[in-house]
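Q: For a teaching session next week I want to show students how multiple molecules come together into a single three-dimensional assembly. I've collected the sequence lines for a complex. Could you give me the predicted structure tokens for the whole thing so I can convert them for display?
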Amino acid sequence: MTARDATPTRTLLLGSLVIVALLLSGASMPRWLTFLLTMSLANGVVALGIMLLMRSGVVSFGQGLVFAAGGYTAALGFGALGLTDGLLLTFAGGLIAALIAAPFAWLIARYRGIFFAMLTLALSMVLYGLLIKSTAFGGSDGLNMGRVSYFGWRPSDASVGYTNYAVTVIVVGIISVWMRIYFDSVRGLVTLSARDNEIRVEYLGSSVRSLIATNFIIAAFCGGVGGALAVIALGHVEPDYSYWTRSGDFVFVAILAGHHSVLAAFIASIALELVRSFSSAYFPNSWQLAMGLFLLAVIRFLPSGIGSLWVQRWRASTVQRGSA
Amino acid sequence: MPLLLTILIDGLTYASWLFIVALGLTLVFGILKILNVAHGSFYALGAYATASMVAWFASMQLAPAFSIVAMLLAAVVVAALVAPLCERGLLRMFYGRDEVLLVLVTFALFLIMEDLTKLIWGVNPLYVADPYMLFGMVDIGTLSYVGYDFMLVLAAVVVGISVWWGLNRTRFGKLVLAVIHNEEIAASMGVNVSRVYTLAFSTGIFLAALGGALTAPMISVQPGVSVGVIIISFAVVIIGGLGSIPGAAIGALIVGMARSTAVHVWPVAELFSIYLVMAIVLMFRPEGLFQRIQARKI
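A: Of course. Below is the structure for the complete assembly, covering every listed component.
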């Protein structure tokens, strides 16, 4: 979608349509599917944060840090502080994750390429090391959390799955619409040109470092929200959320999605979750093998991600129409 | 005082095998510009191959001393069979692509190898106890240490000197340095760059497998040994400076000592002390402690 065609109103309208469609179709879905979609959306919004960073030209290998920060915030808020409102916990998860990331953002924004990836990875592993040994956070067992309420209403056994799904769809939907509008804004387009040529952007008067720092904090918020949503749906959080392999999964989804389309992040996340669920059901000892081959195939044959499939085609058709 | 000695000896032992593994990682990065996430998988493969090889040697009724030969042989087999296959068959397709994308390619390789080792060796832990007692016990003051641990330190020194010698004093080493300096010019002068890449990658993998082979008697060889090793060896090479041999040695010593100090003085800090050092070094000296920014990486 180019900036000219994608007015915020249009994005809002399309986004609302997708959200309503998902809410309506969710009511008739089997329980395993709503759960799978809830987890995919929660993971997808973390990958959306990485997508934003990818648009700035860097890739974070440590989004497990903010994912765990969001998850632990939700579980601790519920268990230790007695907060039971799911939306409040989700927002708190995002906020705390962004606050944790903020002091590092300016420092991290100096680095590119492999160093950015390694530094974020190191930070997430520091958190992992802390979590696994600390008794306050439940050590290697992690923390459990009970059923959350929404505006004072506590869903019943039968409706809890759909309620969590619906809340996840709405929260993730709002973030996605905002993200698309941000992508198409002036700042979002400057971000994209920083990816192509940093020096040019600096000469034109924008600070690439402050762009990356801001985007890093936004990505952290997305990661925290994703972590909180996942923990609310799952009812459990553990230090593995911050382990490097978890961050690897998020980068996996982001690479699979490419940096063109917001929708692609969620399609990629659903694809990954499906591959994981089915291969762990049918080949319990070789699902990682399947995932590895899948990842290699994507990098080899779809280097710009699945989003490029429709965005580039769409772009090509508009260019043709424009020149005709 | 005994505590200090214990910390020093434990740290040194830990640093020894870590240096061997990290040296392989830094070598591959320095020459091929690939930060190999699958490095830990080759370490695990070396450990598994050792378990099989030592058991096979034992079934032939050979003297226990031959188990050392079995360990070396296991590392050689991994380096000679699996490494060229991965480099020629997989990595070659992605040369010249973005560094971060290459990290992801090796992440895929890591996922694949993780399951392949499970499919071949199963999920039950394997034990290789024979070589551990070969060197008897060493008494230092009131404490008694296994001689094997000191053998590891010796092995690390020998490996470090050999790699340095190989790079700086042999014809092949000079070719490698030429490729590191400038691949195109080296190729136009008649250096077979693709051969250099394959051999360099295999050498790096040999070191990973050797690290695995040497530690196999000290651990239980089971799924999951690879994941931890990757990040710790990342920490080592990043602390020392990516692509630097003395850096790998210093990095291994720092990580080894940090870990053994934490284990003996403040066990809670065992894991995060290492990553904290790594994060701090990255923030303030991203090129590593002992690495100047320079064209020549090794």
